[in-house]
Amino acid sequence: MTLEHKIGQLIMPDISTITMEDVEQYRFGMILNGGNSGPGGDDLAAAPLWLDLADAVWEASSAPLGAEEPSIPALWATDAVHGHSNIPGATLFPHNIALGAAGDEDLMVRIGEATAAEIAATGIDWTFAPTIAVARDDRWGRTYESFSEDTDLVARLGAANIIGLQGDPASDSFLDERHVIATAKHFFADGGTNGLDQGDAAGDLDELIAVHGTPYIPAIAAGVQTVMVSFSSINGVKMHGNEPLLKGLLRDQYGFEGLTVGDWNGHGQLPGCTASNCPDALLAGLDVYMVPEDWRDLYDSLLEQARAGTIPMERIDEAVGRMLRLKMAYGLFTKPRPSERAVGGDWDIIGSPQHREIAREAVRKSLVLLENDGVLPIRSSARIVVAGAAADDVVRQSGGWTVTWQGGGELTEDNLPGATSVYDGIAAAMSEGGGEAILASDGTFTGRADAAIVVFGEQPYAEFEGDRADLAFRDEEGLGLLRRFKRAGIPTVAVFLSGRPLWVNRELAEADAFVAAWLPGSEGQGVADVLIGTADGAARHDFTGKLSFGWPSGCLAQSDLLFPLGFGGSYARPPAARNYATQCSALNATQAGRIALFDRGLAQNVTARVSAGAASSDLPRLRGTSASGTFTASGVDLDAQEDARLLSWTGPARLELVLAEGAQLPPNAAIAIEYIAAERPGSSLSLISDSGTLDITDTIELAVGKGRRRATIALACLGNKAPAILGLAADGAAEITIASLAIVPGQATHSCNGPF
Predict the structure, then answer these.
(1) Residue in 677, 728, 663 with CA at minimum distance from that of residue 707
(2) I need a surface site. Which of 48, 334, 565, 652 has the fewest CB within 10 A?
(3) What is the domain partition of the chain in residue ranges?
């Protein structure tokens, strides 16, 4: 191989930033599709389009080279973290936190097998799964990607899932046509950063290894072929550059012989490095750089450093050798193009009844009964009400990493064909027993009701946007419905959809029964399998789920436990009645400090909406296009994946960020904004509140091409009234990138007249 082609094997770009000409020229070792990338720029693309692109990548990377050098096909990796979750119509299994509650190793093998087959049908070779983080702080936005806070449970379930995805390494099924390459991630201690994504796991190294490193031992024994390195740090040292742990622990002590890959531009976070220039990561033990956008510059810098001897040829050959051994183990050199493989293009595999039945089984095994005052199971001959905005919402019940990276947003049930909502599952079960389930999302119905099931919980999220300052569940929709039904004398069942345990004592106190249903995925009927009994009230399935995380009694970061690890009631052994403390200091505390509206993502309890004339529409997580079509918010990368928003206007529109009701403003409040202006606005652009406006057009024109700018402007510039709304408005064409927007205490650094 030429040096140029060796360097290409060490680079992993995103499909959104490459052409097939690039694939043929640079001979990448592998490519990936990020959470918001899809064929032709369409992250909602149907399965056949993914297979078409897989064929194109195979053909471009297999194009003949000179007679002295063989062609080496590229591998394609995806984040299939709860099923082949980028593909509309795929089976969506419950997220890992739910599978931890199920605690069933055989089930994990079968889930891995089903997921692998669906991935292989689309021609993709590799999944960045499973996550074997041991999450120790539920505020972390990736808690639901962790099986448990218990190291041993994570180790067992992770190894079982790897065997399902790759096949048994001791059998002929290993990496055969129905299996794919798996990845154990993120090495290591990503779950030990005190709730901060990409944070620092600090403490005694031996203890950190015992808690967070141990799951990699059975993962390696199960034959995992690749390990993804964590964004996070260990005692202040970024893992992408941590040679003692990447080599000494992972290689020498654990005996891992496979390929290590980076996370999204994670190498660029090393001191002295950028996304396009970082020899230190390779020297520390990273084999492949995940560099979605800056791959061309990284290629050039690595090539120059190899020629200069900054990176020894021995190290390059070592990393390339690992990539080639992986491809040989996978049989890539003898496989035909993806569409000609055994299951390539077999669309009956995607979302098959057999796979959906496994997912349904996983849902019912994952449900955890926290309380039951004789309400459950419900007779299927009864007449019940099913309420809550989440009751008939397959997008919401599936959580993050569903078709798109963060999930939710503009996704609808049309993007999840074949999925069954919690309500639809309940309605079908009630009908079988001669009863009736009335959908009343807002709680309004007529006639009698023998019971009410209220489905509520978190909105979808993934990392960054999912991090929290505390554990208080603030959305009071479910609480209001429970109180309403209780006042009417109707027995209530709370079904809580969440990616982590949260402080829900108020809801627990109002409900007669409470079920932690996690993020069940596409097969909502699994909830009904356990909650709805026969016509005479006998249970069809009992609760078997046990908490894989302790449940907090308080709402702050550190709390005593209300329900311990391993807790879970059943019909055979009902949970004991208890009293709940319903006061939470985080709910009542005044906001004396910074109030973030947008910071790496839309802040908790801030609503984004766009008004244009008479049209008004919400933009969940500040992403998507307004109903008027004149405003679009897109995720862009500044310091991390999609941690900023590109705001674009093509006509008149007002972006309004609505503060949480009752938010107390800090003294001498000011607006702090961090932004980038790439082009002159074609119309006026203003900061707005519900009491005034401030024209910033001249300021934006002066800021064009000057990179990131920060300004603090007195809130009084927008009027004397304490605002309930802050935002931006344009009369026509305009564009600005927002990195953060907040209300802060202290004096403004810029005048109302600008520039700033």
Answers:
(1) 677
(2) 334
(3) 79-340, 357-582, 595-744
Taking the C-alpha atoms of 456, 461, 465 and 471 in order, what is their torsion angle to the nearest 10 degrees?
40
Catalytically annotated residue among 43, 52, 263, 656: 263
Residues 6+ apart with CB under 8 A from 312: none
Terminus-to-terminus CA distance in the chain, angstroms? 54
3-state secondary structure of 743: strand
**Ramachandran assignment for 304, one of left (phi > 0), alpha (psi -120 to 50 degrees), beta (any other):** alpha
How much is the pLDDT for 669? 83
16 by DSSP, 3-state: which? helix
pLDDT digits (tens, 9 = 90+) for 561-584: 999 999 999 999 999 999 999 999
Q: Which of 104, 293, 463, 656 is catalytic?
A: 463
DSSP E strands, 63-209: 75-78, 126-127, 183-187, 200-201
Residue found by looking up tokens 């992993």 in the block: 12
* Dihedral (CA of 99, 100, 104, 108) sign: positive
So what's the pLDDT on residue 596? 86
Q: What is the CA radius of gyration of the chain?
A: 26
Evaluate whether 674 touches 652 at the Cβ level (below 8 Å).
Answer: no
Q: What phi, psi does 376 have (nearest 5°)?
A: -100, 150
Report pLDDT for 411. Answer: 92
Q: Decide whether 79-340 matches 595-744 in CATH topology.
A: no
C-alpha span between 517 and 498 (Å, rounded)? 7
Q: Does residue 263 carry a catalytic annotation?
A: yes
Q: Indicate left, alpha or beta for 754 from its phi (over 0: left) and psi (-120 to 50: alpha).
A: left
Q: Are 113 and 164 within 8 A, CB to CB?
A: yes
CA distance 41 to 513: 45
What's the pLDDT tens digit per position in 585-644? Answer: 887 654 446 788 998 888 877 899 999 988 889 998 898 899 999 999 998 888 777 889
* Mean pLDDT computed over every residue of the chain: 95
pLDDT value for 460: 94
Q: Angle CA(563)–CA(569)–CA(570) in degrees, nearest 5?
A: 170
| HSE (side-chain half, CA atoms, 13 Å) at 486 | 16
Domain 357-582 class?
alpha beta
Express each pLDDT in 443-493 by its tens digit.
999 999 999 999 999 999 998 788 888 999 999 999 999 999 999 999 999
Residues 435, 378: Cα–Cα separation, whole Å = 10
Q: Which residue shows structure tokens 């055979």? A: 572
CATH 3.40.47.10 fits 79-340, yes or no: no
Q: Rounded to whole angstroms, how far apart are CA atoms 644 and 459?
A: 19
Higher per-residue confidence, 43 vs 242: 242
